[in-house]
Amino acid sequence: MNRVVDPIIILVQPQLGENIGAAARAMLNCGLTRLRIVNPRDGWPNSKAVRSSSGAESIIYNAGIYKTLLEALSDLNFTVACTSRKRNLRKKQFNIDDALNQYFDNSLKIGQWGIIFGSESSGLKNEDLDYSDVLLSIPSNESFGSFNLSHAVLIICFHWMRKIKELSSIVKDNVIDKDYLLASKSDLSGFFLQLENELEKGGFLYPPEKAPKMIKNLRAIFLRSKLSKKEVKTLRGVINALKRSGMSL
């Protein structure tokens, strides 16, 4: 038995209302209905998005609007980021099927999850990938690999729908054993801020000009570990215990 939850589609700084509407239409074609939008360029609501959704208006009207990507990810336990560019990051880029399999392999530990798409002009920035668990690349012409936003959404959503139909036995629900639930991005963000604050007090983040790189490397260590909510709570308790004892990190 495979337990699955449909992904939330997250558009980061989309520029054209027409592309947002077409993306919503593509989602509904494939049975997905939950859309989150981060800082849309032309503001919100957007009448062009409604008109171009062509029957998927309910997705537009019910879309969540967020100022930052971290806010949009705060309650998610797992994220897949779509990028066509090769990144100088310690994260492996997967093809579509292998990226989705990363979700299925961990689905019993995942509550809510999302697939992230960047803007039409520049895609996702490196900092947008900080909280991503998996990087996904759509195969394309090597000399012309940039997809229209709505086309990219359609391709990924279609692959999701196909994978679901291939599974012989699935259960779609939001019930999960809390002992195994992965930490949400909000849990991780709180832990990182606490850890980094104490490390700064203890003089670890020195010299200052190297601190951003050191912080990124530290976060990468914990993100690769796929910590559970319980594990994050334990780590935060360790930090608090060290503070009470007068020891610095």
Description:
- This protein has 249 residues and is α/β, with parallel strands linked by helices.
- The chain has two domains: 2-172, Alpha/beta knot (3-Layer(aba) Sandwich), CATH 3.40.1280; 185-244.
- The chain contains nine helices and nine strands.
- The protein has helices at residues 17-29, 47-52, 57-61, 69-73, 96-106, 149-166, 185-201, 211-224, 229-244; strands spanning 2-4, 8-12, 35-38, 64-66, 78-82, 93-94, 113-117, 134-136, 170-172.
- The strands form two sheets. Strands 4-3-2-7-5-8-6 form a seven-stranded parallel sheet. The chain has a two-stranded parallel sheet with strand order 1-9.
- Strand 2 (8-12), helix 1 (17-29) and strand 3 (35-38) form a beta-alpha-beta unit.
- Helix 1 packs parallel to helix 6.
Characteristics:
249 residues; alpha/beta; Alpha/beta knot; 2 domains; seven-stranded parallel beta sheet; two-stranded parallel sheet; globular
* CATH T-level topology of the largest domain: Alpha/beta knot
Instruction: Specify the CATH class of the largest domain.
Output: Alpha Beta
The largest β sheet comes out as:
7 strands, parallel
CATH architecture heading of the largest domain: 3-Layer(aba) Sandwich
Short description:
Helix content is 42%, strand content 13%.
Record the SSE blueprint.
Blueprint: E1 2-4, E2 8-12, H1 17-29, E3 35-38, H2 47-52, H3 57-61, E4 64-66, H4 69-73, E5 78-82, E6 93-94, H5 96-106, E7 113-117, E8 134-136, H6 149-166, E9 170-172, H7 185-201, H8 211-224, H9 229-244
Parallel strand pairs: 1-9, 2-3, 2-7, 3-4, 5-7, 5-8, 6-8
Helix pairs in contact: 1-6, 7-9
